[in-house]
Amino acid sequence: MTKLIFNPVTTLIISLLAIIFWFSLYQTTQEIHNSGQDTKIIRDNIDDLTLEIQNLEEEIELAKDPNTREQAVRDELLMQKKGEYVLKLPDIEPESKTKGPVAKTKTPWQEWQELMF
After folding, report:
1. Per-residue pLDDT tens digits of the chain, which is 117 residues long
2. What is the pLDDT of residues 52-86, one digit of tens each?
3. Are 87 and 78 in contact (CB under 8 A)?
4. At residue 94, what are phi and psi to the nearest 5 degrees?
5. Distance in angstroms (rounded) separating the CA atoms of residues 29 and 115
6. Contact 100/94 with Cβ under 8 angstroms?
7. What is the pTM of this model?
8. Distance in angstroms (rounded) separating the CA atoms of residues 56 and 64
9. What per-residue string of b and e applies to 26-65 under the rule 16 or more CB within 10 Å gives b?
10. Distance, CA of 117 to CA of 112 (rounded, Å)
């Protein structure tokens, strides 16, 4: 029995089994670590989607409001109630503040050059 335990082949087999066992544990640890990171990413996505759902639900409630519907109809379709007049004014671009040609001012350096040359 002692010859079998101290045999170099037996020692080699036991060493190989220990290395395989250690490598398997290492891979399992890496998979657990990666799944923890994936879980965190998924939770972040869930939080983002929850906020988006809340915002969309608020928009739905706002769209169901009769005042919002009336405003949309009046603004987009120019509809009116009985006895009302609707005027649509054209979009006017603001005029520039400067009218006519603008006098160019010269820098002191340019004025000095004109005097000397």
Report:
1. 677 777 888 889 999 999 999 999 999 999 999 998 999 999 999 999 999 999 999 999 988 888 888 777 777 776 777 777 777 778 788 776 665 566 678 888 888 888 887
2. 999 999 999 988 888 888 777 777 776 777 777 77
3. no
4. -65, 140
5. 84
6. no
7. 0.42
8. 12
9. eeeeeeeeeeeeeeeeeeeeeeeeeeeeeeeeeeeeeeee
10. 9
**Residue 42, CA distances (Å) to 11, 32, 49 in order:** 47, 15, 10
Average pLDDT, the chain: 84
| Residues across the chain | 117
- The secondary structure of residue 65, as a DSSP letter, is S
In 1-117, DSSP assigns E strands to none
- The span from the first CA to the last CA of the chain, in angstroms, equals 115
